[in-house]
């Protein structure tokens, strides 16, 4: 799945309407430039591509009062909303070894209802357990990695990663079941995006040609 698409759609949806630099700023605020491939070029490319695909609607804005070029503001469409929730649900259920997929889903999971988020996370645990069972048909963790030579270290790493992933997800399930966080339909959500002009303490400060468009 495309983590960039999920992140960009999520940021635009939270704003209602947002220009490219706002989206970039939000993703840097979330630290996505560190744990995913959410670099400026890929963010601006995703915005343009999804506008062409009908997932976003591009609004041409007037030139800024400071004399800068006009910016394009993006708004999520009905099709874009459907794609957003498809990607979000997939990110929380798929047993994907890439941490950016789960990280993106965790950052946006409160857009779902609490009951659905819990059901998706429980599906994730089951998927991890099923994957582990399939691996341990030919690799026994208790026997240690040496049973397969140094190649066994690969299997040992993935099995231990699966065990940790399942344990951590069960902990998250208990926290959510216990009332942690504000999910859709429960009241005022946590504001995870920056207001126009709000300082971003985590911004990289690196300029990109797309920042002014």
Descriptors:
213 residues, mainly alpha, three-stranded antiparallel beta sheet, 8 helices, 4 strands
Account of the 3D structure:
The chain is mainly α and 213 residues long. Helix content is 54%, strand content 8%. The chain contains 8 helices and 4 strands; from the N terminus they run αβαααββαααβα. The chain has helices at 3-15, 20-29, 32-35, 40-52, 78-93, 99-108, 114-135, 152-177; strands at residues 18-19, 56-60, 72-76, 147-150. A 3-stranded antiparallel β-sheet has the order 1-3-2. The longest helix has 26 residues, at 152-177. The protein is elongated, with a radius of gyration of 20 Å. 27% of the residues are buried.
List the helices and strands and how they pair.
Layout: H1 3-15, E1 18-19, H2 20-29, H3 32-35, H4 40-52, E2 56-60, E3 72-76, H5 78-93, H6 99-108, H7 114-135, E4 147-150, H8 152-177
Antiparallel strand pairs: 1-3, 2-3
Helix pairs in contact: 1-2, 1-5, 1-6, 2-4, 5-6, 7-8
Short description:
By secondary structure, this protein is mainly alpha-helical. It has eight helices and four strands.
Q: Provide the gyration radius in Å.
A: 20 Å
Largest sheet: 3 strands, antiparallel
Mean pLDDT: 87
N-C termini distance: 27 Å
Tell me, briefly, the overall form: elongated
Number of strands: 4
């Amino acid at each position: 799945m495309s983590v960039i698409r999920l992140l960009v759609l999520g940021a635009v949806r939270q704003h209602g309407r947002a220009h490219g630099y706002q989206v970039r700023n939000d993703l840097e605020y979330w630290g996505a430039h560190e744990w995913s491939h959410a670099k400026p070029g890929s963010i601006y490319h995703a915005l343009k591509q999804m506008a062409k695909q009908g997932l976003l609607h591009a609004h041409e804005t007037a030139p800024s009062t400071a004399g800068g070029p006009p910016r394009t503001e993006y708004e999520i469409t009905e099709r874009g909303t459907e794609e957003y929730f498809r990607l979000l649900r997939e990110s929380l259920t798929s047993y994907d070894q890439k941490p950016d997929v789960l990280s993106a889903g965790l950052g946006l999971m409160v857009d779902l209802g609490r009951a659905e988020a819990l059901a998706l996370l429980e599906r994730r645990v089951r998927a991890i357990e099923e994957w582990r069972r399939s691996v341990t048909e030919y690799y026994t963790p208790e026997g240690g990695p040496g049973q397969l030579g140094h190649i066994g270290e690969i299997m040992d790493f993935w099995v231990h990663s699966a065990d940790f992933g399942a344990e951590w997800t069960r902990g998250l399930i208990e926290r959510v079941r216990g009332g942690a966080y504000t999910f859709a339909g429960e009241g005022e959500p946590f504001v995870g995006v920056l207001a126009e002009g709000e300082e971003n303490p985590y911004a990289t400060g690196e300029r990109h040609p797309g920042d002014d468009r």
